Amino acid sequence: MPQITIEFSHEVIAVEDSRRLAFDLHAILAPVLDTDHDIFKTRLARLEDVVIGPGSSDEAMVHVELGVLTGRSPAIKAQAADLILERVQACVERRESRRPLQMTVEVRDMDAAAYRKATRA
What we know:
The chain has two helices and four strands, in the order βαββαβ. It is of the alpha/beta class. The radius of gyration is 15 Å and the shape is globular. Helices cover about 30% and strands about 30% of the residues. The protein has a four-stranded mixed sheet with strand order 2-1-3-4, with helices on one face.
């Protein structure tokens, strides 16, 4: 059920590190969200072009969006956001890029009444 989207400027996270980041987030968020890490779904979006503010700087970005079904407390969502940001910071520190970098996290509610899932074996 938890849905994660990780969008990142191409040079700040290596492809193999982005997959490792996704698996790490599954593992650290599962106990916080009281869910099984096997049901996380993560989309990785490596971005070639980003524009920040007026576009006058050569900044890079990482943005992580975590969608969870309604019912989690604000404290749980804040804890999840802090853990995500901490893990993203550790991930980008492994790269050589020293470009200015903005890292953001958004934890949002997914409407449980409108959420549907189908699987096929």
